[in-house]
Amino acid sequence: MAAAAKTSLEAPPVISLDHVTKSFAGHDAVSNVSFSVPEGSFLVLLGPSGCGKSTMLRMLAGLDQPTSGRILFNDTLVADGNAGFTLPPADRNAGLVFQSYALWPHMTVAGNIEWPLKVAKLPAEERRIRRADAMQMLGISALADRYPGEISGGQQQRVALARMIAPRPRIMLFDEPLSNLDATLRVEMRFELLKLHAATGATAVYVTHDQVEAMTMATHVAVMNNGIVEQFDAPDTLLAEPASAFVAGFVGTPAANLIPITGGRWFGRVADPSLLNATGHAMVRADQIEVVSESGPHVIEVELAEIVPMAGRYLVSGLIDGIRITTVTNRAVRSAEKLRFRLPGAPAAIFDTQGTRLS
Ligand SMILES: Nc1ncnc2c1ncn2[C@@H]1O[C@H](COP(=O)(O)OP(=O)(O)OP(=O)(O)O)[C@@H](O)[C@H]1O
Fold first, then answer.
1. Are 341 and 290 in contact (CB under 8 A)?
2. Residue ranges of the ABC transporter domain (predicted)?
């Protein structure tokens, strides 16, 4: 269900994927993916472990060759699976940062950052300027003479980022770059990365399985599942108009509830014309469910599963038929309480048994 990128009102595409597939031993890690990334965007490849995010990024970096399909950077063909062609990483004007920092331990911070500039054979003065600019942008000028073993993990990641931007690539590729950092540092570095993105004007592609990271950083998100792109859209659109049950259940804090419906009945029991006689799942956002005291139409009894205080409110989850339903409420629910949830008059969306959106 790969949706095309909406590029008509946006900048021209810097990256275009045209029916790209990558197979390993007959299994498609990435399957028939097409989209284009407008210049200056921050695209996040989001999905659960094993969905093909890293494989996609590696093809963009030139570390893996597509089995079929083509990749273009602007008008330049950088990979053509059918022709068995792939442009080497060094010739793509794209920088790459991994989860592991991969710094040279025997080189100083300044030496590490200068290394790709030396490989590119830039003159010494230009190297000095670019090295200083990159260190200043990442706030690590004071660490120039230290060795990687003498700085913290967060500082090492800053060095890896400075090394990536020093050659001034027009495309920046990130593979889970923050996952080795603690929670506080991760939030701080998200902000740093966005500043870097704005300051360089480069187009970024960022791999993560963390939907909060995706929703806070991205201009565009490609939600991946089993090697396919389920939806390619802006974060707000993913939340407001999820194209599939998978997307609805993957994004959002909390993610929307997906309630099973059979023949137009909630949980196969409570008939409701708003369910259109459908069988599959109804999407109900947490704030569409009310915690009530009395039974009545659309009210279901649930077994309390969890109460999470959140910004002055409570996320209350209950279980019914082994399915977890979450609501957000101002009420301080007591843990021993028998819970009743009132479902909304109509769901926010309906998906069939394949997860395809019906309404
Ligand atoms: N070199 C390889 N040889 C064989 N199979 C591979 C290879 N690389 C990836 N795969 C398979 O391709 C699929 C996608 O892997 P990939 O690493 O792209 O997923 P991912 O979404 O990045 O996962 P994670 O978040 O866990 O890194 C997986 O089933 C994986 O086992």
1. yes
2. 15-251
Cβ–ligand 1 distance for 209 under 6 Å, the answer: yes
Q: 5 in a domain, yes or no?
A: no
Q: Is the pLDDT of residue 7 over 80?
A: no
Q: Ligand 1 in contact with 104 (CB < 6 A)? A: no
Could you say which of 228, 246, 264 is where a domain stops? Answer: 246
**Per-residue pLDDT, 270:** 86
Handedness of CA 349, 352, 356, 359 (dihedral sign): negative
Contact (Cβ atoms closer than 8 angstroms) between residue 247 and residue 230: yes
CB 176 within 8 Å of CB 207: yes
CATH classification of the domain holding 347: 2.40.50.140
* pLDDT of residue 5 exceeding 50: no
Structural domain that includes position 164: 13-246
Cβ–ligand 1 distance for 52 under 6 Å, the answer yes
Is residue 67 domain-shared with residue 89, that is, in the same domain? yes
Q: What's the rounded Cα separation, in Å, for the pair 315 and 253?
A: 10
Which atom of ligand 1 is least distant from the CA of 30?
A: 14
pLDDT digits (tens, 9 = 90+) for 241-267: 999 999 999 999 999 999 999 999 999
